[in-house]
Amino acid sequence: MPRVLLLYTGGTIGMQPSPQGYVPCAGLAERLSTHLALSDPYRLPAFDVLEMQPLIDSAELMPEAWNRLVALLESHWPRYDAFVVLHGTDTMAYSAAALSFMLGALNKPVIFTGSQIPLGEPRSDALNNVVSALQLAAHPTTPCEVSLAFHDRLLRGNRARKVRTQGLDAFDSPNFPWLAELGIGVSFPQPSALLSGLPNFAPIEVDDEAVAVLPLHPGMSLRRAKMLLEDETLTGLVLHSYGVGNPPSFEGELLNALKTATERGVALLNVTQCAQGEVVQGAYATGAALNQVGVIPGGDITLEAAIAKLTVLTGQGLVGPALRKALSASMRGEYSR
Question: I need a labelling partner for 326 at 20 to 30 A (CA). Which of 117, 125, 131, 243 fits?
C-alpha cells in the first residue's frame, strides 16, 4: 500500500472560529484522525501529517512559501510515494501552478486540496476532499504531476482556477479536461501526456518588483500604465486583455509604451480576461499590432498560471530573450500548443 504525506500549510480546512472570524489553527492531525476514524481505514492509504510552521492564511501567501513547500517536499521525497498539500482556496491555484513549474517533471503525484468549510463545521466539504485526495494519491493511474483535487474532480494544477466563492465545486479548469472524476468509481478520461522524471527542488529568488499585471478596462489611466511599463525594476508583465487579446490603442501611445518596454528587455505576456478561450493576436487589428511590438500571446493560459510562471522563471534568473523563449513554450501543459 502506498504511503502518503499530508502537508498542512493552513487555510480554511484547518481553521477554527474566533471573535475575528475563522483563523488558522494548529493540531489538524488529531482532529483529522478523529473524523477519519468514521471512514473505513482499509480504503485509505497509510499517511502521516506534517504541519508547516507557521501556518499560512492563503490570502497572506507570498512566493517565499513556495520555496518552503518545495524544501519540505525535498526532505521527505524518498520516504513517501505521494504527497497531498492541504492549502487555502484563495491562492491554491497560484501555488499549484507555481510548484508545477518549480518541480518540473515528477515521478510521484503531488495533489493540492482544501475546503470551502472548515473541518468539523456543519456541511463541511473538508473530509470528502481529503479522502478523495488520499484515494487519488494511492491510485496507480493518478498522473505524476502537480494536480488539484476538489469536489470529486482532479484538475491539472496549472490549469485550475477558483471559479466559485460560495459553491462547494469551487475549482474547475475551463480550458482543459479534468484529469479524473470520482463517482461510484474513479475514472481517468485521458492519460497524462506529461513526461515523468526526477523533480527539481531548487528554490527561486523572490523579487516582488520583477513581475506585475496590467489589467485593461474602459477608463483606465494611460499615465499609470506607462509608469508601470517604464519601471526599471520590471522584468515581466502580464497584459490582462479583452477577448482574444485586444488592448485599447490610446491613439498608439499604449502600443509605443509596450514596444519601448520590450526593447528594454521586459517580457510581456498577453492573457485574456475571458474564462474560456484563448488569445489570438491577429484576429483584430488592435491585437495584431501587439505582434509587431513583441508581446507574447499567452494562448489559453490562466491568469494564475501566467503570474506563477513569470514569477518562477524570473526567480530562476531568466531575463530578456531567454525569458521570452521560456514563456512562449509550454513547460508543464499549462496551455494548448
Answer: 243
Q: Buried b / exposed e across 187-211, counting CB within 10 Å, b at 16+?
A: ebeeebebeeeebebebbeeeeebb
Cell of 142: 493518478
pTM: predicted TM-score of the whole model, two decimal places:
0.95
Helical H segments across the chain, by residue range: 28-36, 63-76, 92-103, 126-138, 222-229, 253-263, 285-292, 303-315, 320-328
Those residues with Cβ within 8 angstroms of residue 315's Cβ, 6 or more apart along the chain or in another chain: 63, 204, 205, 206, 207, 210
Q: What is the pLDDT of residue 251?
A: 85
Look up cell 508601470; give the residue.
228
φ and ψ at residue 142, rounded to 5 degrees:
-60, 130
**Residue ranges in the chain whose pLDDT is less than 50:** none
Q: Name the catalytic one among 12, 91, 262, 272.
A: 12
Q: What angle do CA 156, 312, 246 make, to 5 degrees?
A: 75
Question: Among 203, 176, 157, which residue's Cα sits nearest to residue 304?
Answer: 157
Rounded Cα gap, residues 92 and 98, in angstroms: 10
296, 321 Cβ separation under 8 angstroms? no
> What pLDDT shows up at residue 38?
67
CA 205 from centre of chain: 18
